[in-house]
């Protein structure tokens, strides 16, 4: 597949280059006056793609740390449709797709939980079960710049182990002029012959008042983005002969609606005082209707003679027809109030107070149907498709409502199931800083300060079995067999499926069916109780940092040296369950500890615009929230195999660990950068090395059942183990390891090489990362680090001149371990295959006349319809999941004045 993808990219690049080169020649040829105007445009007003690249390059060069940057092309306009898209193109960064959208960012081979996200320098909460921020919650139109810190410095509070992503909104006084922009885009997602249409729109306003002492910036962005996909999986596995065991097939329809609001108020009445008030709000409603089936093959029927992994035949198949509804309703709010006061010629004081809070209400609803009573079980042929999935031929037409009945077709003891979750996250921070500047000497200034953070995150779960109301009383006119009911009428959806060889599967509105046809039967067990927890963290960070600005001979030296002292007091509340009590008893726990994090960053300015950077630091990342939960479940196994090989009745305790300490690492970074043409381009190479002093993974230890005081011996079951010493299984700090890698990157406007190539440019990067960390502990050496792709590459070719712009981008990552929502609503790990995603963008901005400053934009995302795939143990003949998201086409109009 890769040669084809490279050829497609090459053809797209060549076609775009020829088309726009011809257009440029046609406009440049008539007269020297046109060329002079173009030169004036290029030198006086750099806009669009080139503006974004040059601003990002300048930020990278001027930083004293090793950073990557993405800057907006114009007010309210980042270069990609989402922040995650833009970040995924930076050296050493990758994105994991959810629902076809890049959402989680992996930095240098680490999953999102190892990084920290800030908004205007303030740590942000997250909407998922852990710490990783979902970047599609932040509308790209409201973000002015994104900085990714790959090295640490002492004044960077809340830093991550893999990196820190700082989202920045515009500063109206620094912007310096009035601006108003309106962006409107229509989009169409196409999977096969099926289409879904949506749109996005935004408006941005920046102004200054009262003789430039007051600045105001406002932005609003709305997204209405229906989507769709086809899914093969979650495959159940394969038998000893490699025969398909069973799985699921789904058609998914998504409705995504997001509203975002950004506001910035600046007040600077004098050179001595400066105040900034930031407000950010985002509401994102995501609804998904899933229609499909779940069925066993080798694990649910009889495998017929002559079957092979490539072509298998079965009889006795009994599919469960699934119509599900999943939804997540998210709200995110952040506010920050910063005051800066100049205390004389050499001192500056800063006080900042902020709050970030989020709430997610999530619903996972399942309803079941199957072949009605009296009909024999089905037959099945399964054929392997080299695209990475199986195709199927069933004997029945599962789009025919006359053969289907609502009910417990799988014999699972329920006619449906519902899970309602709620996640809340609240973080309040108070920060004080002082800076002392020096007029001469090695150090330009010394900064010191403190930051106090109080964060509480909780998760609640409410789950129930669903029973068909008409069948609760047994036989009735609507439930003639006492166990099943006719399919709902008046709320049917399309039966056309047209994927994986299956022409049709009957569909209906699962949410409306739940509201009218089902009764809840509360489910109380230990698994559900363990999803109810709260974690509180109080973190005090004190820091001192000396900023270096000097010369050694003819070499300029900039940088910083300092340390942080981070004191943490953490606690958790939950429930511990035991046999006979699924609700359990309240339990709590916690720990306190202090970390010292030294850091050093040096930047050497060499002749001919060369820069060498060095960084050394101690880094840390707080443990996952679901690992910190106090919850536990006491059980016993009558035939437990102990570590010494003996089999005996044994008590067991599965739990979280509120006493966990962070991941900690010693990190070294070295980078070389060569800049061209007044920061218009650069080439660079970087090496990084992290030695994790410990890693967190599940470990086994002894525990005494007599210490579980809320579960006295009088409540023990009659067959309970007599030996009070059992085994506890919980996350612990254990053996670490190293991760290291090379990053190569280039950003080059091609007119630097040859003047006739004015307007053409290229950006590319490549990363090679290695790790010997064993994420599940010693003895599990074959599982890679979550989020790590050994090879990552990105290439973007662009042209921008005379109002024309075009960009073709392709990003690739090799195989990696990611997280998805698994059974029960918890996160589970999967090994996903490598992927290559190509996007194309064409645009034109009117340069004069009545349409001046109006821009037209055409984009195609996922040009080659790259699927999202996983397999068992990397075996292509044993696919596990195959998500086909299709292409998305966007056409937009932007206006700025």
Automatic annotation (TrEMBL):
<feature type="signal peptide">
    <location>
        <begin position="1"/>
        <end position="26"/>
    </location>
</feature>
<keyword id="KW-1134">Transmembrane beta strand</keyword>
<keyword id="KW-0798">TonB box</keyword>
<dbReference type="Pfam" id="PF00593">
    <property type="entry name" value="TonB_dep_Rec_b-barrel"/>
</dbReference>
<dbReference type="InterPro" id="IPR036942">
    <property type="entry name" value="Beta-barrel_TonB_sf"/>
</dbReference>
<dbReference type="Pfam" id="PF07715">
    <property type="entry name" value="Plug"/>
</dbReference>
<keyword id="KW-0472">Membrane</keyword>
<dbReference type="InterPro" id="IPR012910">
    <property type="entry name" value="Plug_dom"/>
</dbReference>
<keyword id="KW-0998">Cell outer membrane</keyword>
<feature type="domain" description="TonB-dependent receptor-like beta-barrel">
    <location>
        <begin position="380"/>
        <end position="863"/>
    </location>
</feature>
<feature type="domain" description="TonB-dependent receptor plug">
    <location>
        <begin position="60"/>
        <end position="163"/>
    </location>
</feature>
<dbReference type="InterPro" id="IPR000531">
    <property type="entry name" value="Beta-barrel_TonB"/>
</dbReference>
<dbReference type="InterPro" id="IPR010104">
    <property type="entry name" value="TonB_rcpt_bac"/>
</dbReference>
<comment type="similarity">
    <text>Belongs to the TonB-dependent receptor family.</text>
</comment>
<keyword id="KW-0813">Transport</keyword>
<keyword id="KW-0812">Transmembrane</keyword>
<dbReference type="InterPro" id="IPR037066">
    <property type="entry name" value="Plug_dom_sf"/>
</dbReference>
<protein>
    <submittedName>
        <fullName>TonB-dependent receptor</fullName>
    </submittedName>
</protein>
<keyword id="KW-0675">Receptor</keyword>
<dbReference type="InterPro" id="IPR039426">
    <property type="entry name" value="TonB-dep_rcpt-like"/>
</dbReference>
<keyword id="KW-0732">Signal</keyword>
């Amino acid at each position: 597949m890769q040669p084809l993808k490279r050829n497609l990219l090459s053809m797209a690049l060549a076609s775009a280059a020829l088309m726009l080169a011809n257009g440029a020649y046609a406009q440049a040829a008539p007269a020297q006056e046109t060329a002079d105007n173009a030169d004036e445009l290029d030198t006086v007003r750099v806009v669009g793609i080139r503006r974004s690249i040059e601003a990002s390059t300048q930020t990278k060069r001027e930083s004293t740390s090793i950073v990557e940057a993405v800057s907006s092309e114009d007010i309210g306009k980042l270069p990609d449709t989402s922040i995650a898209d833009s970040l995924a193109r930076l050296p050493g960064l990758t994105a994991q797709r959810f629902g076809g959208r890049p959402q989680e960012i992996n930095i240098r081979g680490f999953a999102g939980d190892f990084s920290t996200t800030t908004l205007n320098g303030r740590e942000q909460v997250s909407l998922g079960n852990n710490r990783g921020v979902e970047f599609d919650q932040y509308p790209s139109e409201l973000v002015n710049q994104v900085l990714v810190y790959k090295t640490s410095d002492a004044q960077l509070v809340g830093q991550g182990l893999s990196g820190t992503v700082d989202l920045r909104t515009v500063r109206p006084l620094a912007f310096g002029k009035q601006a108003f922009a309106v962006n409107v885009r229509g989009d169409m997602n196409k999977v096969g012959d099926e289409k879904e249409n949506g749109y996005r729109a935004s408006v941005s306003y920046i102004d200054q008042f009262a003789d430039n002492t007051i600045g105001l910036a406002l932005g609003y962005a709305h997204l209405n983005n229906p989507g769709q996909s086809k899914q093969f999986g979650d495959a159940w596995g394969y038998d000893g002969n490699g025969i398909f065991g069973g799985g699921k097939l789904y058609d998914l329809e998504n409705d995504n609606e997001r509203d975002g609001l950004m506001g910035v108020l600046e007040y600077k009445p004098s050179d001595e005082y400066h105040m900034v008030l930031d407000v950010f709000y985002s509401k994102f409603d995501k609804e998904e209707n899933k229609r499909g089936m779940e069925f066993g093959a080798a694990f649910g029927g009889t495998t017929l003679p002559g079957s092979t992994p490539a072509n298998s035949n079965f009889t006795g198949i009994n599919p469960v027809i699934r119509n599900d509804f999943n939804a997540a309703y998210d709200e995110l709010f952040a506010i920050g109030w910063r005051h800066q006061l100049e205390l004389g010629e050499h001192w500056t004081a800063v006080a900042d107070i902020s709050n970030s809070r989020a709430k997610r209400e999530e619903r996972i609803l399942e309803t079941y149907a199957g072949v009605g009573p009296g009909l024999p079980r089905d037959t099945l042929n399964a054929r392997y498709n080299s695209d990475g999935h199986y195709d199927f031929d069933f004997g029945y037409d599962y789009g025919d409502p006359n053969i289907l009945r609502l009910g417990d077709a799988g014999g699972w003891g329920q006619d449906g199931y519902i899970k309602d979750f709620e996640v809340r996250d609240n973080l309040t921070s108070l920060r004080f800083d002082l800076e002392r500047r020096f007029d001469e000497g090695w150090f330009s200034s010394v900064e010191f300060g403190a930051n106090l953070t109080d964060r509480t995150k909780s998760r609640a779960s409410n789950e129930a079995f669903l029973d068909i109301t008409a069948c609760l009383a047994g036989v009735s006119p609507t439930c003639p067999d006492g166990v099943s009911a006719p399919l709902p009428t008046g709320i049917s959806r399309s039966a056309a499926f047209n994927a994986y060889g299956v022409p049709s599967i009957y569909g209906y509105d699962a949410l409306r069916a739940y509201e009218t046809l089902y009764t809840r039967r509360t489910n109380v067990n230990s698994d559900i109780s363990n999803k109810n927890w709260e974690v509180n963290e109080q973190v005090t960070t004190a820091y001192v940092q000396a900023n270096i600005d000097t010369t050694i001979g003819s070499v300029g030296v900039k940088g910083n040296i300092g340390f942080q002292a981070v004191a943490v007091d953490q606690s958790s509340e939950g429930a511990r369950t035991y046999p006979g009590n699924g609700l359990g008893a309240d339990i709590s726990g916690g720990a306190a500890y202090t970390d010292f994090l030294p850091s050093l960053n040096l930047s050497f300015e060499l002749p001919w615009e060369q820069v060498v950077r060095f960084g050394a630091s101690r880094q840390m990342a707080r443990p996952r929230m679901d690992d910190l939960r106090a919850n536990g479940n006491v059980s016993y196994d009558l035939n437990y195999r102990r570590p010494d090989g003996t089999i005996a009745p044994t008590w067991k305790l599965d739990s979280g660990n509120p006493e966990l300490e962070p991941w900690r690492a010693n990190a070294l970074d070295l980078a070389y950068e060569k800049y061209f043409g007044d920061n218009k381009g650069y080439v660079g190479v970087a090496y990084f090395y992290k030695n994790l002093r410990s890693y967190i993974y599940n470990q086994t230890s002894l525990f005494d059942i007599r210490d579980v005081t809320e579960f006295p011996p009088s409540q023990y079951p009659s067959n309970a183990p007599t030996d009070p010493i059992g085994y506890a299984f919980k996350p612990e700090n254990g053996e670490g390891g190293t991760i290291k890698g090379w990053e190569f990157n280039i950003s080059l406007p091609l007119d630097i090489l040859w003047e006739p190539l004015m307007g053409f440019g290229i950006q590319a990067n490549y990363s090679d990362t290695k790790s010997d960390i064993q994420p599940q502990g010693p003895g599990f050496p074959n599982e890679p680090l979550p989020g790590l792709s050994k090879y990552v590459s990105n290439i973007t070719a662009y042209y921008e001149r005379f109002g024309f712009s075009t960009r073709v981008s392709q990003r690739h990552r090799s195989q990696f371990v990611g997280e998805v929502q698994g059974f029960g609503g918890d996160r589970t790990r999967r090994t996903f295959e490598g992927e290559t995603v190509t996007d194309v963008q064409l645009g034109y901005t009117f340069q004069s006349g009545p349409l001046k400053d109006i821009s037209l934009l055409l984009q195609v995302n996922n040009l080659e319809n790259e699927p999202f795939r996983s397999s068992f143990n990397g075996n292509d003949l044993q696919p596990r999941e195959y998500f086909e998201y299709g292409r998305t086409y966007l056409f937009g109009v932007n206006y700025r004045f």
